[in-house]
User: Which sequence fits this backbone?
């Protein structure tokens, strides 16, 4: 299983990964992008930024990179970076299928920026697209944003395709989204092909505002799945200058950034395998990686736990964030 390479790594940031959602396309729902990204968000400008981040991440010991078909040109940028760095063979590459990017490199696109489709036909099309861009470097392929009603949990034809991919040596997983993440995770644990579990990883939103998936993620870990944590900074809401007062106070006490403190809480979870940074700049990445050095006392953790929100309210707030 490719994730064994992460467990064997000895660098202190081996359990932190880099996600490319923020730099693979010009529009996303992370706060602060007007200052984080180049004024002209051309394809070449974001390709250059992606290379900069990947170089900085690898030099700092990060060994998991996360992309997706719907993250604009993230797979293209990642594939180009890998081709330009042929000696870099120690990174684990994950991507996701199930959403199609439809914004045509615009931040002001009319309608949705991505469209979900978990059908076997969508898988066939997007698997071929990923293979063209990443070749044999793909280690993990996840169904993108599974919810309890997703056909990805029940479609036997799709399960057969995913099992065939696993037989080729690519780990099969899923990501989940929405206020019912826990239900989707538990349903996924019951999906088998020929008596064997189909999904070997689960990627979920978990942060100090949204903790509802925690018990189900612990169950997934106990069942042998690798857990990846996404949106650890709540789309920028837990980073400066947007962080709530309690987080800012604890960060000041530690001498590190709000982002590092928020990510440190996730790293402390015994079931967390990889916690993703969604950095859009090298400075943000460096600050995120300081999470490995944060040492919180029980009182500080208790103050942060007090920030948790009702899942429905959290996801309603997330849905109101603009694509910017």
Assistant:
């Amino acid at each position: 299983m490719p994730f064994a390479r992460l467990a064997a790594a000895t660098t202190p940031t081996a359990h932190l990964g880099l996600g490319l959602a923020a730099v693979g396309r010009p529009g996303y729902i992370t706060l602060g992008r007007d200052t984080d990204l180049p004024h002209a968000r051309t394809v070449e400008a974001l390709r250059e930024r992606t290379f900069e981040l990947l170089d900085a991440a690898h030099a700092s010991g990060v060994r998991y990179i996360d992309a997706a078909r719907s993250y604009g040109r993230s797979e293209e940028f990642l594939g180009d970076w890998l081709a330009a760095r042929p000696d870099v063979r120690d990174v684990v590459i994950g991507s996701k299928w199930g959403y199609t990017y439809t914004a045509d490199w615009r931040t002001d696109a009319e309608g949705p920026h991505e469209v979900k489709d978990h059908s076997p036909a969508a898988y066939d099309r997007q698997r071929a697209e990923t293979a063209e861009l990443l070749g044999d470097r793909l280690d993990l392929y996840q169904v993108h944003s599974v919810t309890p009603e997703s056909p990805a949990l029940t479609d036997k034809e799709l399960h057969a395709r995913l099992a065939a991919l696993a037989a080729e040596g690519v780990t099969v997983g899923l990501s989940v989204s929405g206020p019912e993440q826990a239900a989707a995770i538990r349903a996924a644990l019951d999906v088998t092909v020929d008596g064997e579990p189909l999904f070997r990883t689960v990627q979920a939103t978990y942060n100090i505002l949204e903790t509802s998936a925690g018990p189900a993620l612990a169950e997934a870990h106990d069942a042998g799945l690798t857990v990846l944590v996404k949106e650890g900074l709540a789309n920028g809401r837990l980073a400066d200058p947007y962080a709530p007062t309690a987080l800012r106070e604890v960060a000041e006490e530690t001498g590190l950034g709000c982002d590092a403190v928020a990510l440190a809480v996730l790293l402390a979870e015994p079931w967390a395998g990889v916690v993703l940074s969604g950095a859009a700049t090298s400075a943000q990445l460096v600050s995120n990686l300081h999470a490995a050095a944060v040492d919180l006392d029980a009182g500080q953790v208790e103050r942060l736990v007090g920030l948790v929100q009702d899942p429905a309210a959290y996801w309603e707030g997330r849905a109101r964030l603009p694509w910017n």
Observations:
- Residues 113 and 258 are 29 Å apart (CA to CA).
